[in-house]
Amino acid sequence: MLGAIIGDIVGSRFEFDNHRRKEFDFFTAESFVTDDSIMTLAVAKALKETELKAAKLGLTSFDEEYLVLLRKNTIHYMQTVGRKYPDCGYGLRFNGWIFSDDPKPYDSFGNGAAMRISPVGFFARSEKDVITLSDVITAVSHNHPEGIKGARATALAVYMARKKTPMEQIKRRIERDYYLLDFTIDELRPTYRFNETSQETVPQALQCFFESTSFEDAIRIAVSLGGDTDTIAAIVGGIAEAYYGIPEEMKERALGYLDDELLEIYHSI
């Protein structure tokens, strides 16, 4: 989860001023937390609180009662946490969802489905869990098939990386079940532009990870691609954390960008 937050922070200052090279200062005074980090923390909180409540109720599997509770908690924490940060960068329709008294899914295929889903890959106990949990969390807002697909692919990559699956095996699985990655980042970089859809963000983010050699390298590749840099780097960061881990010094620097409210959520998970 912290990997996604780091990717968001590092990519934040380049979202509307793309930097198409890997050479740049990683953390700066201009870097900041956006909706990507806030929603990732909200999803992680929903998963944690659902598990605690389920244990009290004696629920031992992801049955219908558990999933109803997860859906309720996902909406609750995304709204209650999200409303405290009204200017963090929500898209227009998602902003309406955050502040709605009766939030409904709105057939979105935006990349927000994937940027917030990395906690599922760390929380799930099986690949079946990944799909089940990802779908419930995603469908509260982004219930278009492409939104569901982007979140599934991202969460599965995180899960497989956490299980120390070789990178080439993860890539083969993604290409078999989700996206054909028949391009390199160098080929894509000159023409890639800002895009908020899952189908034009998740494959590109996955390829950034597959070309990386370390956690930091993965984030640098993601930023160098351009486009919606905070979201691409957040997606990449969640996978790269699971695969490589994060240097301790980098963790400490990143946590310094979270305010007390977000830090409390982070430390409670």
Q: Strand count, sense and closure of the main sheet? A: none
Number of strands: 0
Low-confidence stretches: none
Give the total of domains.
Answer: 1
Level of helix content? 55-70%
Output the CATH topology.
ADP-ribosylglycohydrolase fold
Query: If helices are DSSP runs of H or I spanning 4 or more residues, what is the number of helices?
Result: 15
Describe this structure in words.
The structure is a single chain. The longest helix is centred in the first third of the chain and has 23 residues, at 35-57. The chain has one domain: Orthogonal Bundle (ADP-ribosylglycohydrolase fold), CATH 1.10.4080. It starts with a helix and ends with a helix. It is 62% helix and 0% strand. By secondary structure, it is mainly alpha-helical. The mean pLDDT is 96. Helix 8 (145-162) packs antiparallel against helix 9 (167-177).
Describe how the helices and strands are arranged.
Layout: H1 2-12, H2 35-57, H3 64-82, H4 92-98, H5 112-115, H6 118-123, H7 127-138, H8 145-162, H9 167-177, H10 185-188, H11 202-210, H12 215-225, H13 229-244, H14 248-255, H15 260-268
In short:
The chain is mainly alpha-helical. It has 15 helices and no strands. The chain has a single domain (2-268), classed as ADP-ribosylglycohydrolase fold.
Label this structure with key terms.
62% helix, ADP-ribosylglycohydrolase fold, mainly alpha, 269 residues
